[in-house]
Each structure stands twice: as structure tokens, then as C-alpha cells.
Amino acid sequence: MERIYLDHASSMPVDQRVLEFAKPYLIEKFANPSSLYNMGAENKEVLEAARKKIADLINAENTKSIIFTSCATESNNLAIRGTALRNQKDGKTVLASAIEHISVINPMKELQKNGWNYNIIPVDKYGIIDLSELKKSLPKDTIVTSIMYANNEIGTIEPIKEISKIVHENGKYLHVDATAAAGRIPIDVQKDGIDLLTLSSNDLYGPPGAGALYVKPGVKIQSVMPGGGQERGLRSGTENVFAIAGMGEAAKIAKQEMKKENERLTKIRDKLISEITKIEESYLTGHPTQRLPNHASFRFSHIEGESILLNMDMYNIQIATGSACSSKTLEPSHVLLAIGLKHEEAHGSMVMTLGNSNKIEQVPVIVKAVKETVERLRKLSPLVKK
Amino acid sequence: MEHFTNPRNVGVIENPDGYGKVGNPVCGDLMEIYIKVKDDIITDIKFKTFGCGSAIATSSMVTELAKGKHVDEAIKITRNDVADELEGLPPQKMHCSNLAADALQAAIKDYKEKKKK
Questions:
Q1: Helix/strand/coil for A222
Q2: ipTM above 0.95 for this complex
Q3: So what's the architecture of B2-116 in CATH?
Q4: In the structure, what pLDDT confidence band is assigned to residue A10 with cuts at 50, 70 and 90?
Q5: Is any Cβ of chain A less than 8 angstroms from the Cβ of B91?
Q6: Is A343 within 8 Å of chain B by CB?
Q7: What is the arithmetic mean of pLDDT over A250-276?
Q8: Do A304 and B55 touch (CB under 8 A)?
């Protein structure tokens, strides 16, 4: 059975071109970029070239505004804790939407334990930030507000430009987690009015082990991991030249190919959505149009997500779920609860995130597997009454 | 995995001698077990389960373990028996096997209640 991988939000294969580009930095050109001899200096140039490619992807003002980290979780931590700690004499409030990634929520909770106010902004049934609530929950002393560009579980794209206007009326900084959105849709940090932006290498088909944080010139931030003072003192630790070089190349390719890939994936996505929602008592989760081109997410009544995942795997199709059984906490996804689903509804969720290996010809195979899976699990379910 | 891909004894029994229902769809698990009993021996058993892979597999396993057993023996089937039979479950999944054994016990208790009347 041909493998059909539909879980690109969780992990992506590295682009072959990226690997070829970055491979020498593991073997021949392995020097520490802080070393003064020529081989080290050359690798410093490699980092600068990668910075330029990433700055171009998001239209950053300059290359200095790109700080390399090890992953998106680290970038989120640096953005939130780094600004909150540095600016605490100006205020002690932090804000996040109800559907942020756990690597935004947990640093905020940590701040809350240490005396900060942590306000949560609700979303509507499609996952769009409630702008009037945002306005109301923004006290004058708000240091950082974190809203993701697009959500990884429901695909909804947030109106970042409008959010930025509201945030800057009272608050200081807007942090945007663009892990799911970057490389899929165009991002312009200057036009969008973003102060801090999180990026992940692997989510651009780059090697795992690199991430980046865009820090707008003038933003006051401090390091959260003291050490040798690399990355303008904001992120200590010897740079992972291989992964960073790869991330830069991946960003360059993403920028070049985004428009075409966008159109290609949108067709597959829309076909999947129209076919799968034909199944009885199946529903799209997230926004019908304001959504990522590679994202199709659903929920099915009367069945449970982990058994959907395992059953789909028998067809060699890999999907994700927000069901409780698949989590460590046995709680269903906070994102699905935030869009107003009941617990029993949130348990029956299925998330498909498309990527470069997916083709429109796979749609009938996927749809057939979903239909058979739902039918089979409903036969087992006591919630279906004949 | 075999008990997930190929669960035994799926279904319902009309006019069962015993019926047990445990769990709650809100928590993501709901199980129903139906038994048919003759001379205190479980002659037929069926289940329906809403839940994760482990929940479905353990339901299937419990019905296999109980079939043909005397009710007094079947009621002693514990959560650990089920997990052992499945060659272990991850700790956060033990909850699922509890449910399957609990559903069986509920069905047998129901049978005993009915018998008294």
C-alpha cells in the first residue's frame, strides 16, 4: 500500500535540494562560526546568508532582526519571557489567544505564577480572535500579546493586521507564532505590524534543529539562556550551521514556490473537504475560507479520534487528532474546546495537513479510507442507535 | 493491535440476561456489554465501545475471557488480567482496560439482580 502522509504539521521531510545545500556544513565545513580562522569566518558568512534568505521570506527590515534558535518552542519562549522580563518595570500583563500552541501557553502560565497577569482572548466558532474582547482585555501595562498567524489544529488564519492595530493602542509588543503559516502563505512583518515572529526550519522542509525569532528593530528583549552571547547576546550556544544553512535554503525555496504550491494544495484541500463532509454527521472544523491552503480538519459524531488515527494507519495513511486519548493529559484539544465544541465532539476529530508528496490523485483513496473507517467505528459505537 | 483491527463479539443482544454500561462520552470512553446466561454460564456476550484503540481492544479481550465462564468466575476478571492478556498497556491507557472489566462486572451484577426477582 502506498504511504499517504497527511501530518505535515507534525513533521516534514527535508527537501532534497535543502539537504544537498547544507550537507557540507556537517562534514567538510564544520567549523564553529565564532572561530577566527578562515574556516570559522566562512561559516559566519553562511549564517549571514541564511539570515538574509529568512528576512526575505517575511520582509524583515534587515538581517539583524533574525535571531536563530533551535526550534519554534524556543523562539516562543524567548519572545514571551524575553520581552516580559526585560520590560517588567513598564507593566506586568501578558495576553494570548485561547488557541495558542502549548509553547506559548506554558511560558505565560509560568509568568502568571511569578506575579504577572495572564489574560486569555476567546475565539469564535471558526477560531477567529474576538476583536472586541481583545480590545477590552488589553490594559495599558500589557507587555506582550501573542496571537498565532494560523492555527495548526484547525487551519484558521487570523486577521493579524487588524489585531496589530488593536494591540498597539494599549499594549507594547505583538508576538506572532507563524510556525504553521510560514511558507504556506505570504507574511510581511512590516505591513502586518508584527514585533516578534516565530519560525521553524522543519515546517519549511528544512532540517529539524533550527528555528528563528524575528525581533523588530527597537524591541527591548533579553536572553533567557545566559552563555557565550551568540546571536547579539539573545541566544547563547554555538550555532547549528548545518540546520541554519538548510533553514535559509528552505526559506528561499518556499518563497519561490509558495504561490504555485499554494494553488496546487488548495485544490487538493477543497476536494478533500467537499468529499469528506458528505459523510453523514461529519463537520469541517475551523474557518471555511480563511484557512491554510494545506489544512483540512474535521470532526465525526459518535466515534473517537485515536481509533480513527489507528484505523487510518491500517490504510498506510497518517493523520492527526485532537482527541484526549492521543494526549498525555487525557484532556481533549484546548483548541477544539475554545471553538465551542463539547468534550464528546472534540474527541472525534481528525486533522489532515498536506505537503509536497500529496497529489490530487490520492484524494479518492483517502476519501474511501475515511468513509470505511468512520463506518467501521460507528458499527462499534454504542452512541449510534439503529 | 489484533483485537483492534479484528475485534471479537461486536454487537448487541436482544433481551439480554445482563447488561452493563460504564464510562461517559464526555470523557471519551463509553462501553456497553450484553450477556446471555444459561445455568450461570455465560453462553453469549457482545459489546459496543466508543473510545480509543485500547478501549476497543480491551472490550474485545474481556468478552473473549468471559465467554463460557461461570458468572462467579467471570466477575473476578480484573483490569490487570485484561492488560496482561494484551501483553501490557501503557500506564495512561490502563484506565481503558479498567472500563472493560468494569462493564463486564456491571453486566453480571445486573444478571444477578434480575435473577433474584
A1: coil
A2: no
A3: Alpha-Beta Complex (3.90)
A4: very high
A5: no
A6: yes
A7: 98
A8: yes
